[in-house]
Amino acid sequence: MPQACRHPGVRLAERYDAVIIGGGHNGLTCGAYLARAGLRTLVLERREVIGGAAVTEETVPGFKFSTFSYLMSLLHPKVIADLELRRHGFEVLPASDMFAPLPGNDHITFSDDIGRSQASFSRFSRKDAAIYPAFDRYLGEATQIVRRLLLETPPDPSCRDWRSFRDTAKLLWKYRKVGSKLFRLIDLLTMSADAYLSEWFEDTHIKAVLAYYCGIGTYAGPRTPGSAYVIMHHIMGEHAGAGGWGFVRGGMGTISQAIAAAGRAKGMEVRTGVEVIAIDSDNGRATGVTLADGSRIMAGIVASNVSAKLTFLKFLKPDLLPESLLRDIRTYRTYSAAFKINIACERLPAYTSFDAATCGFAYPTYTHIGPTIEYLERAYDDAKWGDWSREPFITPVAPSFVDDTVAPPGKHVVHLFGGHAPYTLAQGDWDSRKPDFVKTVLGVLDRHAPGFSDGIIDMQVLVPPDIEAKIGSPHGHIFHGELSADQLFFARPAPHWADYRTPIKGLYQCGASAHPGGGVGGVPGHNAAREILRDRRG
Question: For 483, which DSSP code?
């Protein structure tokens, strides 16, 4: 509570042990862990709703949209267990196997059941179907290594101080048995998705099923070097369902609300509609934050869940930071081409190529429209020159098929996530051209599900500038920055500052700009809290 005033009209700053900037799921996670450890913790959120990209909003009356993120996959089991999220309302509903309509009224499906995937693949290539289990094991072994790395704090291998040397040595010893599998990680980090998959598969439809993930949220095509890693990033979830995906009852905001409830149960405070404009410091140590109304909140620990660009380039004076760090943050790549269209509708898409008996599930709640490697690459080619994709890849998902809380009886919610829609258009601007863009996207969907557009009640259209304006993610990038070799682990978001700390003592990074990156996983928040408590213990 505010302290008593010593002089009329002057309010002294409030004091907390820790202040978290940004009430996204990572900020809430960090705050919940700190509160659980006994720290008096305050989370500040600029918007009126908590959750950042993991929110549920009733943008159209009666319809609850998962406005930004739309499926649960990466939320770490440790976070779920530690914070007892199921006790606070977190419940995952299964999505169907992935369904991909193809030209000629055909389709291909992909499942976490290897046999079902093989059966579908065999219609296109018996060779590819036969080798798929070996590929799954091969990729799975590399994925297991990266899953273990998720909870690591990246050391600085270039530092000569004893603590950095010790941390690097411990990491190397811990992973000494990786051996030849190290080269599998190098392949994933350097090869294009197409080149990587072509070492195993021959059919373009099968390769597209797996390469599709490389474009989700990234400014890349399947033939972009390094895009193979993004395939693995999207399948690292350790939960039931196709590729680990599922819907959250009540929408993605339920995750954020559950984390907030867990934190509040330990004394964490959360305030919305509060904008931070500066991080305060004195003699190289964080002292709190300044708000837009001019008031201050004092704390010896400040954790920033907002992007690294905002944290270092907006909230701090440049003379407080090393020039090398400022350069690395300025050049940290955040350009985005992802779009999201949230639709309230009378009926779900009726795909002409879907047959429940053939596919083995009642309805394709999780769909990929991106039939070939060539299709996916052309979608990127269009964006590369500053226009939206003439044939965009689209992920239509239908949560209302399994979740009766997000739409009125007999009505539905459909989310369309896809690419590419460049942040900046070469000709015109998004304000004037957005209606034509929407026609392009819906035209592709209607080709596979005729008449769907006729049943639209209302919609919300989000292109990268809209996403940036709403949640502050630079250029609307859903991961806060590209998932590329030079922006991962030791170097995320910048070399020498990947351990969640900053040059300002007591100031930490706890958002998606830090290791391991974006996705609703809670790992940056978890790891940052661990390092904060480690420093606090000395």
Answer: -
**The pairing of beta strand 507-509 with beta strand 296-304:** parallel
The single-letter DSSP state of residue 454 is: G
Identity of the amino acid at 46: R
207: closest CA among 374, 42, 332?
Answer: 374
Fold of 14-53+79-91+250-333+481-537: FAD/NAD(P)-binding domain (3.50.50)
Torsion, CA 280, CA 285, CA 287, CA 290, rounded to 10? 10
Domain ranges of the chain: 14-53+79-91+250-333+481-537
| DSSP symbol at 2 | P
pLDDT tens for each residue of 114-140: 999 999 999 999 999 999 999 999 888
Closest CA to 74 of 485, 534, 523, 507: 523
Task: Give the phi and the psi of residue 199 in degrees, each rounded to 5.
Answer: -70, -15
Question: What is the DSSP pairing of strand 456-462 with strand 338-345?
Answer: antiparallel
For the segment 152-164, what is each residue's pLDDT rounded down to a tens digit? 999 988 876 777 7
Q: Is the peptide bond before 94 cis (omega within 30 degrees of 0)?
A: no
Q: Enter the tokens of residue 415.
A: 């989310």
Answer yes or no: pTM beyond 0.90. yes
Cα(258)–Cα(48) distance, integer angstroms: 17
d(CA 335, CA 337): 7
Task: Locate the DSSP E strands across 455-515.
Answer: 456-462, 507-509
